[in-house]
């Protein structure tokens, strides 16, 4: 498998983020676009949520409702817009990376709501992913009142799932958090939320189909290998092919990993020379992709801890 780097741009309350690395927004949008594809999303639900493990992927695709994303991108794949903003009274606006809902088997009602978040950093500075994930579940529950019904009919609440993928963890594991009673049974009326955190380590061999899927989509930039793997589960149409091609061919993420490797080699051999070469390659890559000058400067400052004037000097050789 040929490796590639992930570059998810995490969106927090009001699009403000003090604890995250802001990486290439183009790569981030392409990643969200691919994971918003109904077939890809259905496969993810089939492999990660126990309730859907016995449901065919085609059936899940047919039952997925509207899918929304935080960014104003143009998803390829017949996806209409569901409001991804959650803003109860006196609370901050909350933006979900991807949000959708799934119908019941007879399609007469909503079975559950799904939130999908992509995260690069496993250890935010001032909180845990678990804490933030539970908060997202709570907001998915509270926002239902007044949408499903005009009154506070709590019996109309539907279960919510918040799925978090951490792409740069130090180990590989799936962990679930849900409400159970004192007899450790979760099949009861309080079974209204489930937080699923999937931590990925590129260097760990994928242990099951869920981890294999995520390794293929996030760590492999050989589009032929990715497509052939997906064919084991779904009918790969042009929408999926184009989404996979975009992920595999967009080289900003690849350069990010190559840049990190280059920095490690530089510390061992010719530190300054290798550093400058890596900076040059990154600038060339972003310039060829049409990335804006100010975004390129921001990348250099964050990746190499450069002052603005130094980063500007590098960039001015390519951006006129």
Characterization of the model:
This protein has 320 residues and is α/β, with parallel strands linked by helices. The protein has 2 domains: 13-249; 252-315. It has helices spanning 25-35, 38-48, 57-63, 129-142, 209-219, 223-230, 238-249, 251-268, 271-288, 293-304, 308-315; strands at 64-69, 85-86, 94-95, 98-103, 110-119, 159-166, 173-178, 193-199. Strand 2 and strand 3 form a beta hairpin. The longest helix has 18 residues, at 251-268. It is globular. The two termini are 38 Å apart.
List keywords for this structure.
11 helices, 41% helix, 320 residues, two-stranded antiparallel ribbon, alpha/beta
Give the topology.
Blueprint: H1 25-35, H2 38-48, H3 57-63, E1 64-69, E2 85-86, E3 94-95, E4 98-103, E5 110-119, H4 129-142, E6 159-166, E7 173-178, E8 193-199, H5 209-219, H6 223-230, H7 238-249, H8 251-268, H9 271-288, H10 293-304, H11 308-315
Parallel strand pairs: 5-6, 6-8
Antiparallel strand pairs: 1-4, 2-3, 4-5, 7-8
User: Number of domains in the coordinates?
Assistant: 2
Instruction: Tell me the strand order in the biggest sheet.
Output: 1-4-5-6-8-7
Beta strand count = 8
Regions with little confidence, pLDDT below 50 for 5+ residues: 2-23, 71-81
Helix content: 40-55%
Rg from Cα: 21 Å
Number of helices: 11
Strand content: 5-15%
Taking the alpha carbons of the first and last residues, their distance comes to: 38 Å
Most strands sheet? 6 strands, mixed
- The backbone outline, from C-alpha atoms, is globular
Supply the helix-strand structural class: alpha/beta
Report the oligomer: single chain
Mean pLDDT metric: 78
Order of helices and strands: HHHEEEEEHEEEHHHHHHH
């Amino acid at each position: 498998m040929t490796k590639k780097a992930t570059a998810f741009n995490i969106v927090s309350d009001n699009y403000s983020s003090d604890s995250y690395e802001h990486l290439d927004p183009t790569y981030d949008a392409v990643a969200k676009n691919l994971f918003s594809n109904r077939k890809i999303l259905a496969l993810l639900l089939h492999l990660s949520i126990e309730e859907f493990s016995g449901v065919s992927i085609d059936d899940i695709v047919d039952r997925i409702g509207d899918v929304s994303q935080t960014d104003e991108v143009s998803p390829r794949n017949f996806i209409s817009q569901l409001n991804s903003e959650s803003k109860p009274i006196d609370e901050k606006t909350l933006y979900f990376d991807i949000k959708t809902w799934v119908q019941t088997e007879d399609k007469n009602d909503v079975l559950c709501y799904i939130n999908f978040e992509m995260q690069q950093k496993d250890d935010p500075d001032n909180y845990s992913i678990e804490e933030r994930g539970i908060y997202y579940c709570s907001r998915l529950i509270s926002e239902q009142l007044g949408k499903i019904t005009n009154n506070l009919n709590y019996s109309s609440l539907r279960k919510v799932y918040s799925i978090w993928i951490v792409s740069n963890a130090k180990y590989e594991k799936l962990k679930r958090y849900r409400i159970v009673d004192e007899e450790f049974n979760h099949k009861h009326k309080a079974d209204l939320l489930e937080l699923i955190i999937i931590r990925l380590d590129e260097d760990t061999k994928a242990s099951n189909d869920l981890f294999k899927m995520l390794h293929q989509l996030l760590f492999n930039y050989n589009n032929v290998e990715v497509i052939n793997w997906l064919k084991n589960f779904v009918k790969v149409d042009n929408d999926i092919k184009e989404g996979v091609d975009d992920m595999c061919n967009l080289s900003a993420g690849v350069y990010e990993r190559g840049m990190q490797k280059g920095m490690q080699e530089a510390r061992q051999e010719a530190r300054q020379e290798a550093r400058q070469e890596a900076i040059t390659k990154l600038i060339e890559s972003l310039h060829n992709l049409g990335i804006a000058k100010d975004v390129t400067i921001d990348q250099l400052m964050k990746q190499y801890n450069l002052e603005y004037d130094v980063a500007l000097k590098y960039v001015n050789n390519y951006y006129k």
